[in-house]
């Protein structure tokens, strides 16, 4: 029993124009930053930031921008549902992870040295 959900993205010409305008604004702000090379750095940075803020505003007015905002709201709602561990439990789990990492490092080191000894000393007869 397989039910496939079709996700249909409808992109209007206005949305495509908004996305293109946002891309042009990003490029224009970068170009303005470099064209103002003889000016003070603060003026160049302000020109860059103004262009980027305008591009973000245009992007968020498009359908994909609204979908991104809705996704962010949904993500925040899901994070609020998470049951976070107590600090003591989080500390214990962190200690377990560190202990496991140390044990695995020692195991891999021992395996590496054993294989090195078997291959180079016993099989090939290379003495160092």
UniProtKB/TrEMBL annotation:
Membrane-spanning segments: 19-36, 42-60, 93-111
Keyword Transmembrane: yes
Alphabetic keyword roster: Cell membrane, Membrane, Protein transport, Translocation, Transmembrane, Transmembrane helix, Transport
Superkingdom of the source species: Bacteria
Cell membrane as UniProt keyword: yes
NCBIfam families: PRK05740.1-1, secE_bact
Annotated protein name in UniProt: Preprotein translocase subunit SecE
Species the sequence originates in: Ideonella margarita
Lineage of origin: Bacteria, Pseudomonadati, Pseudomonadota, Betaproteobacteria, Burkholderiales
